[in-house]
Amino acid sequence: DLRMSRGLGDVYKRQGYGVFKKRQETIKGVHVTHLPIVPRGNDSKIMLMLNYFSYFIVACMYVLWKVFADSFKGFLGFKKSFEFDFVFCQQLSPVMMSLPAVLYKKLKKVLLYTWVLDLWPESLSAAGGISNKHILGFFDWFVKKEYKWSDKILTSSKSFDQSIRTYGDYKGKIVYYPQWSDGSPSTCLLYTSPSPRDMRRS
Description:
alpha/beta; 3-stranded mixed β-sheet
């Protein structure tokens, strides 16, 4: 059972999605939930930050609600429907989008694979034009925690390794995982790694 959640940004709204429209759909067998977020606006740093923070707040509330509701279903004797062996986080921008995945990992004791497609806080200063040392310092702290909480850190580029390893000794966690299949064994990682349930049985 594959499930995915993503932010309902401006692009999706132009495609007919909305807060009350097409919130749930199935795409090629994957159940997709669209979560409402604050739009970026036009070149406004305030709107950009609201956009960045809105996804992880809404998504964390969604995870908490689904886990609570699922536990209640189990208490009543019904089959749970929000149980997964691992969480795969496609970490683009903003970096806080990984927090809901971390939350589910902590609550359900499962593996977390973080696929790093953007380096933070470098992307914030380079693309977002943010230079405030307090803001950059917060994101630097968050990135350090994100890498620590991840069981595997998948990188779309081998050049990312140097930046990631400045946050800790994560050589054993880093796996090269390009955005296309190059035939390397790393592309089979998600299908060969045991789940926490399997590891507890062994």
